[in-house]
UniProtKB/TrEMBL annotation:
Composed of three domains: the N-terminal N domain, which is responsible for interactions with the ribosome, the central G domain, which binds GTP, and the C-terminal M domain, which binds the RNA and the signal sequence of the RNC. Residues 431-458 are annotated as: Disordered. Involved in targeting and insertion of nascent membrane proteins into the cytoplasmic membrane. Binds to the hydrophobic signal sequence of the ribosome-nascent chain (RNC) as it emerges from the ribosomes. The SRP-RNC complex is then targeted to the cytoplasmic membrane where it interacts with the SRP receptor FtsY. GTP binds at residues 108-115, 190-194, 248-251. InterPro entries: AAA+_ATPase (IPR003593), P-loop_NTPase (IPR027417), Signal_recog_part_SRP54_M_sf (IPR036891), Signal_recog_particl_SRP54_hlx (IPR013822), Signal_recog_particle_SRP54_M (IPR004125), SRP (IPR004780), SRP54 (IPR022941), SRP54_GTPase_dom (IPR000897). GO terms for biological process: SRP-dependent cotranslational protein targeting to membrane. This is Signal recognition particle protein. The lineage of its organism: Bacteria, Bacillati, Bacillota, Bacilli, Bacillales. It comes from Fontibacillus phaseoli. Its EC number is 3.6.5.4.
């Protein structure tokens, strides 16, 4: 996951500060030395690190911090605020023109993911009840136009193309008119990239810019290239005047230096981040939420938003009723797994829950996507009656299910046992939180160390 190394290092630094009743200037200096090393190891720009540490130090050695009852927590709060400011302070939203269409020009080097990101942004706009039009302006890369057409068909967004022989400037000009004539309120122009920044590329982009007068010029950069991503952004910004940056493959960069450096170096806000390959794996970039994730404090707001947009409310209510009445079956369990998968990879979901980052490092907590697949295979190998009534699954049936799912009898036994435990616990929780006011009983059970309360089927 993004920032994994940085998060682990910072949590280690701050756990020492939290344990101190009083914090001296030497304690702050020692902590800042470790934070500085952590940021440099995360491939954050050296000058950015230097300025960041200076700002945190200045605020952390003030009398209001030193005399505080919880100086460690106050310093963590200062770091949180400075990290947020470093990444832009607040969310930079996509522009919206008063006279549609809003023109968004996508730029970047070859291989950064412009074409896919253009389609992802179109999908995001569709969710907001907009009518985007994609423009296939990359006539040089083999199959670039076909790729955009396939993606457009997949997300049900029209793609504007012209016959071979037309140049990208003419394609952009006619696409703008087409959008006006057909009521498209966003025009997303996928432009050509190169393996490096060159004058020919920039001249073409300048001409497209002149013809379409875009409201947004978004640079798509690969976060996994680290400092190079920041250098590319700086170069493009000098020649084209960017309005924002989209970081792709952020989920694959465990360091995260690009996200922490790009705003400070270029002045351009990060507007979106791609956290996966799926077509809906593009999120608006919230600096304050990302800072919270980096510090291991989770990001419940993003998780709630994901749940609201991906989980069927009526199904959730029906599932809650079944859990309360102990009617939960293996069919229901499969449906629940499907709902969870819609939220994204389990690793990312756990990173959004406060405290889960530390739990992931414990030896008995495993986040294994393949294991979910094995569980699904076991359930799919059951008959309809067995799914509805797990109590009927005797030894011979379990052997058949294991053979049919390509798993072992031990795997099947473990799944059924933990499923029974989960059902029983759901019923207990429901009873304890019921109208008879037995909430304290539940708290006592939780106070026993949460025995039996394991993540199911690990």
């Amino acid at each position: 996951m993004a920032f994994e190394g940085l998060t682990n290092r910072l949590q280690s630094v701050f756990s020492k500060l939290r344990g101190k009743g009083k914090v001296s200037e030497d304690d702050v200096n020692e902590a800042m030395r470790e934070v500085r090393l952590a940021l440099l190891e995360a491939d954050v720009n050296f000058k950015v690190v230097k300025d960041f540490i200076a700002k945190v130090k200045e605020k952390a050695v003030g009398s209001e911090v030193m005399d505080s009852f919880t100086p460690g927590m106050v310093i963590i709060d200062i770091v949180n605020k400075e990290l947020t400011d470093l990444m832009g302070g607040s969310q930079a939203k996509l522009a919206k023109s008063n006279r549609p269409p809003t023109v968004v020009m996508m730029a970047g080097l070859q291989g950064a993911g412009k074409t896919t990101t253009s389609a992802k942004l179109a999908k995001l706009l569709l969710k907001g009840n907009h009518r985007p039009l994609l423009v296939a302006g990359d006539i040089y890369r083999p199959a670039a136009i076909k790729q955009l057409q396939v993606l457009g068909e997949q997300i049900k967004v029209p793609v504007f193309t012209l016959p071979e022989g037309n140049n990208p400037v003419e394609i952009a000009r006619q696409a703008l008119q087409h959008a006006k004539d057909n009521g498209n309120d966003y025009l997303l122009i996928d432009t050509a990239g190169r393996l490096h920044v060159d004058e020919e590329l920039m001249e073409e982009l300048r001409q497209i810019h002149e013809v379409t007068k875009p409201d947004e010029v978004l640079l798509v950069v690969d976060a996994m290239t680290g400092q190079d991503a920041v250098n590319v952004a700086e170069s493009f910004n000098q020649q084209l005047t960017l309005t924002g940056v989209v970081l792709t493959k952020l989920d694959g960069d465990t360091r995260g230096g690009a996200a922490l450096s790009v705003k400070a170096v270029t002045g351009c806000p990060i507007k979106f981040a791609a956290l996966g390959e799926k077509i809906d794996a593009l999120e608006p970039f919230h600096p304050e939420r990302m800072a919270s994730r980096i510090l291991g404090m989770g990001d419940m707001l993003s998780l709630i938003e994901k749940a609201q947009s991906n989980i069927d409310a009526d199904k959730a209510k029906e599932m809650e009723r079944k859990m309360r009445n102990a009617e939960f079956t293996f069919d229901d369990f499969l449906e629940q797994m499907d709902q969870v998968k819609k939220l994204g990879p389990l690793d990312q979901i756990m990173d959004m829950i406060p405290g889960m980052g530390k739990m992931k490092q414990m030896k008995d907590v495993k986040v294994d996507e393949k294991q979910m697949g094995r569980v699904e295979a076991i359930v799919h190998s059951m008959t309809k009656q067995e799914k509805q009534n797990p109590d009927m699954i005797n030894h011979s049936r379990r052997k058949r299910i294991a053979a049919g799912s390509g798993t072992t009898l031990t795997d099947v036994n473990r799944l059924i046992k933990q499923f029974d435990e989960m059902r029983r616990m759901m019923k207990q929780f429901s009873d304890m939180m019921g109208p008879k006011g037995k909430g304290s009983k539940m708290m006592k059970q939780l106070g026993k160390g949460g025995k039996g309360m394991r993540f199911p089927f690990r």
